[in-house]
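Exercise 3.2. Students should predict the tertiary structure of the chain below and write it as structure tokens, then compare their answer with the key that follows.

Predict this chain's 3D structure.
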Amino acid sequence: MQYDRFQQEAIDCINRGHSVIVSAPTGAGKTAIAEHVLLTCIKDNLGVIYTAPIKALSNQKFRDFQKQFGDNIGILTGDVSLNADAPVLIMTTEIFRNKILDQPKSLDKYSWIIFDEVHYIDNPERGTVWEESLIFLPKHMQMVCLSATIPNIKEIAQWMESVHNKPVETVIEEKRPVPLHFFFQCYNEITDNSNDLKRWGGGKTNKLDSIISYVRLKEGFPCIYFVFGRRRAEDLARDLYAHNFLTPGERKEITAMYKSLCERFDLTDDRTAQELSALVSRGIAYHHAGMLPTLKEAVERLFTSRLLKVIFTTETFALGINMPSRSVIFDALRKYYGRYVRGLKTRDFYQMAGRAGRRGLDKEGFVYCRINPQRIKVDEVKRIIYGPPEEVRSQLNTSYATILNLYEEYKEGLVKIYPLSLHYFQARNYEKKEAARLIEAKLKILSDFCYIKNGSLTETGQFAKSVYGYELILTELYANRVLEQLDEFGLGIMAASCVFEPRKNQSMPSLSKTARRIRRTSEELYEQIKNKEHKTRVYPFSKSPHFHLSSCMEAWLRGTKFEQILKFTDTDEGEIVRYFRMSVQILREIKDAEATSHILKEKIKETIRVINRDIVDAEKQLREG
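Answer key:
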């Protein structure tokens, strides 16, 4: 195979046995580097781990690599375990971090690790996991880090070298093999010159028909249309229903394919799948996290067949999932970032824009931005598109479970671990002092709750070190013998309450007597936790339990069909599946904790068995896919 300059440079580093970090634009061909590592390791009988930031990407990589490498590929995520002893093991970064801390010996047979989308280290919610994985990476493992374009790539490499005391080579590619060409829709006019935006006065509203017709005229299909809201994605797809983008032959082919996929994934009676059918027959679809995972997969398969011409989707479609198109349209250039709406980060913009232009098929990709000058200034548009990408900054916020695992090994010396972090490497002095204070404050809380006593972890500490993300609330329920007293229904309710995040102003449905009792106990314990965190100035506070899915979970545990449990909640069906799968994951962590009694383990096993069926069973989806 003929490699590009940057691919060959990275492969040469790997062949010398050196770790390497690669910064290249989306769509440049970073996956070829990962494939070289897999091929070489399989040939040389070496183990290799491939980590990805989200389960959907892990699942896709499992399918893709399994086609190439057969039984050499396994997958291990929170809710899937297939061929887990394979020489090539795909997993989420959370699972890898947990293995490093909980079961380091299980990593002895792996010589290489590939961190895909390593710029995720500056994700506010999950960046800590990446940073901890890189800090505690076993000494015998070499790494290949694949990243979107970031300006401080050499700083990241220097930090890695300082932690592991071995070379980490950097490979940088700034050009895309398929260049992007930008267009703007403003006052319903379309131009490729951003300076026109300042010259045009008010008047017409941007019309969807206008931009889609323009893209069609320029032979810009298939097209990904990015929106920043699920309902907006659905509404825009319906607005386009009057258009038909397919020839009679294509319409017949896509209709048959969609019908077959719906039968295979048991979607024939699903309301959303039925509604999508009319759109699909015209070459249109939508895709977002609120849809059933199997329905999302069906839509993805239609898109890769190239029969689907326009797909309206949220930004998760851009994260590493291999769905290139000829054109990309941005509904807007502003989105919600945690606490407020702001202009897109340049890096986020190119993560999505990079889906335009299919390598080997297109000479260039086309990116269309719909601009409303009342909502975004022209200078901000130029900053997003033509400005430098943002640097990667540490988001370190070490979890209680991580601290407990480190305490077990280093005792009070664990505070010396912080200077190994990227946060310490990048931070100003006052930020370093505050980060060190936070770790000390968390240690104090763990001692106050008696998880640590006389220099060792207590029984409750042993339990807490195994349940990442929900340590304090679950351990207090364990310590107060609440978990032991719950039946299978109570355990399901409890797990769902820990993982669930309600939307703003989402209403709470009426609760059963069992759910009310668990809620009352949990909220009392949570108040104690929050008070301790408030007094010691630990932030953000531990997540509080939310019981919005309790009735839904109880109905599911009674064996009710999925479409019938929807009446107990206003949560999207895809979100229900995701939260049920997360509930299974947290129950597995409780079950696998050494401190958990045999009786509780057996009850949890049964709860997991009943929750993890039909549409919730992620392994089933992968096997059937």
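Discussion points: The first strand starts at residue 19 and ends at 23. The chain has four domains: 5-172, 180-386, 396-455, 466-624.
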